[in-house]
Design goal:
Shape: globular
Largest sheet: 5 strands, parallel
Bound molecules: dephospho coenzyme A, adenosine-5'-triphosphate
Number of domains: 1
Number of helices: 9
Helix content: 55-70%
CATH architecture: 3-Layer(aba) Sandwich
Strand order of the largest sheet: 2-3-1-4-5
Number of strands: 5
Radius of gyration: 17 Å
Amino acid sequence: MKVIGITGGVGAGKSFILDYLKNNYGAKLLIADEIGHQVMKKGTTGYEMILKAFTSKILDNQGEISRPILAEIIFSDLEKREILNKIIHPLVKSYIQAEIENFRKIEEIKLVVVEAALLIEDHYETICDEFWYIYTKNEIRKQRLKLSRGYSEEKIEAIFASQASEEMFRKNCSVVIDNNLMPNEVYHQIDLIMKNREES
Ligand SMILES: CC(C)(COP(=O)(O)OP(=O)(O)OC[C@H]1O[C@@H](n2cnc3c(N)ncnc32)[C@H](O)[C@@H]1O)[C@@H](O)C(=O)NCCC(=O)NCCS
Ligand SMILES: Nc1ncnc2c1ncn2[C@@H]1O[C@H](COP(=O)(O)OP(=O)(O)OP(=O)(O)O)[C@@H](O)[C@H]1O
């Protein structure tokens, strides 16, 4: 079983590429952002820890942690982001490690893909066989994020500033996917990479 880690900045197209790997190569997916949301739901240890660190001003009307409020705090304040990261990242990583161990017991599962913006910073090389960097120019990422998620220019810039540089991603990833292109051209790149994997 191969474990590929997919990384890149916000809106680079990581989920878009994951969908393709799932639908065309039967990949099992582990998505750090989604797991991050799970491990801070009401009733979890993560929830209690975040509430203690950030106080009840981050709660919504249902008593759940409000992601927009938390995003505003952590993407404009490095210290707060580090506090949140220290709480959430170990929980996410343990969850992912346990899932991978479960997948290893199932012979039919040949490919697992882990998606996280922070694979490099959080040392996922201990879990993944290789890292892929999804490269999309900032201007294109901005356009796509505004269109698909209605993110503001300010929100996008704040998240950009909190994430690794292109240089850092390139230095640490053995495969680079150019996702500035039309979907079919991107799928073609992936097919070539997967074909090379089968042959080697
Ligand atoms: C701050 C939160 C609540 C905002 O949620 P929201 O649904 O608005 O945004 P989403 O999760 O889609 O994240 C937006 C973008 O920021 C990236 N991102 C999320 N957290 C971080 C972080 N701590 N540092 C850098 N980038 C981050 C995501 O990968 C994505 O590219 C949420 O991102 C979160 O819980 N972050 C902490 C968990 C985390 O670090 N996840 C990243 C992968 S381990
Ligand atoms: N090659 C492409 N052509 C056109 N649209 C694309 C392409 N790649 C991604 N998109 C679109 O861009 C948007 C952002 O992509 P996606 O959600 O996959 O990014 P992401 O890297 O997973 O973001 P995040 O960091 O928030 O998890 C989506 O609406 C997606 O459909």
